[in-house]
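SEVERITY: medium
COMPONENT: batch folding queue
REPORTER: lab tech (J.R.)

DESCRIPTION
The queue accepted two submissions in a row. Attaching both inputs and their returned structure tokens so the on-call engineer can compare them side by side.

ATTACHMENT 1
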Amino acid sequence: MKRNLLILAPNLSDYEGMVNRITARNKNVTVHYAPDISGAYFLCMCHEMDVIVLEDDGQTYETNQNGTTISFMCNLRKIPHYQFTPMIMITPYEDMEFSAFRILHCYDFFTDKSEKKLESAVNQALNYKTSKFIEKTILMKKEGIIFLYPVEDIIYVENKNHRVWLHFKESKTDFPYETMKELQNKFTKQDFLQCSRSVLVNKRYILAIDKGNKFIRLRNGGHSIGITQAFYEDIIRELAYKKS
């Protein structure tokens, strides 16, 4: 099963050795790096992280106006599929241990960058299964038959020519017309974003957003979907962290 590991740290090169050993043993692990909190938020909204490693010296993230590591972790815990995600915290401040375990429910806590201990904790956490592994499905009806599709298989949904089209990696299929409001109730904001009057895109497949040309680049072989101006700000707001 594919696993996503996020590392939030000011100096990402410190973790290259550990990451190389982990990915060499487990080809299903994809590692995402973020040098700042806004970048980490963006990655967490685009992908469902299975393990999050956070380094905080108590000062690094104070100056970028995106909050602290603690506020970042607290906000993630408010999102349903991050309520139980293993988080591993690294900080030289021992007095943060109480907050890490009792408030943030960290999987582990370190006051130094001991590669051996950290690597062991990450490997254990990658094997930890949370409630997010209960497969989400979308129910569609056609000609009296009910079809169930895993959310992670649907790249985007298109309302076109009075039909609803579900696009997958290597195929697409159509269903009777539904209004966008009906589709939004089915394909919720937790998993899908509306990028035009007729298209909903799965967050899992967003690779990049081209601000200048207003389109989303997807992970399925470079395919792109246009963003209309009416939905652009909503997409940025959903994907990028905005301090409350």
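ATTACHMENT 2
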Amino acid sequence: MKITNVSNVQVAQEDNVKEQFALDVLTGLCSTPKNISAKYFYDDKGSELFQKITSHKDYYPTRTEFEILDSIKDELPKVVGEKEIDLVELGAGDGHKTELVIQGFLNAGVIVNFYPIDISEKAMHLLKKNITAHKNLKIHGIVAEYFQGLRYARTLSTNKQIVLVLGSNIGNFNPAQSQGFLRQLRKTINKSDYALIGFDLKKNIDTLLSAYNDSAGITRDFNLNLLNRMNQELDANFDVSSFEHFGTYNPILGAMESYLISKKDQTVFIGELERTFEFNEMEAIHLEYSFKFLKKDINFLCEHSAFEVVEHFSDKNDYFVDTLWKAI
């Protein structure tokens, strides 16, 4: 498996990445309410914890999507109809679900060039362990932001692309951001390329709450790790034990929301910013939205992003949809 770190080579040295992290933290902690971008969850430790979340019994999206992909893996090569394809995955994950898609194409005799894209190089190495080697499979990991990596992948090949946005990653954007993301995706790929996108559907709220507040406390550790990251990378002095995780469903927005709640009045100094921040008892830091969808919402997004729906693939409980779109 070849890995190219596009972030370091083409865009930024480590100091610039750190500078952007610090700037985003400054902006977020000076806002009302305080917030920190969810993209900073995924340092190496955060990526490792997220993989543990996805395998926990309370977290249904991963196993549900696995079942969907297993049921359609032999159908996808017939729909695409190519002898060689590029699979480009945005957000590498651990490879278990992607392995199903890859094997479906390999079993059909298709040559597969797999380009996983992730901001964490450690995620690439986790993925490598779960992808079975094959003479017709080439893997080239790209460490980069999504569209930066997608543009780089296009310079490596002119094959038809299938862009994978698996999991419920699209749900981390609000409705306007989702449209912007999907339109940008369409601009970055060619006409007649495909996208296979995972959408978590609206469902029983208790099921949602259990998934985002797992009984093992892994989601709690995942969220609190963001404070550890700021301590390590930005010279902050957060007392992690004085914050707690809180996940809830907002029925107005149709989204799960994640917060860190300050257990007491406290002061935090961030050395990289040379600034002190005050936190009141029970004050919240907003971390993440995870929007849920109806199928009509998915159709709307497709229609307004210059794609057409090829087919929606769902599980028996209608918990999740993997939808195949074609660029028009």
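NOTES FROM REPORTER
The longest strand covers residues 111-118.
No errors were logged for either attachment.
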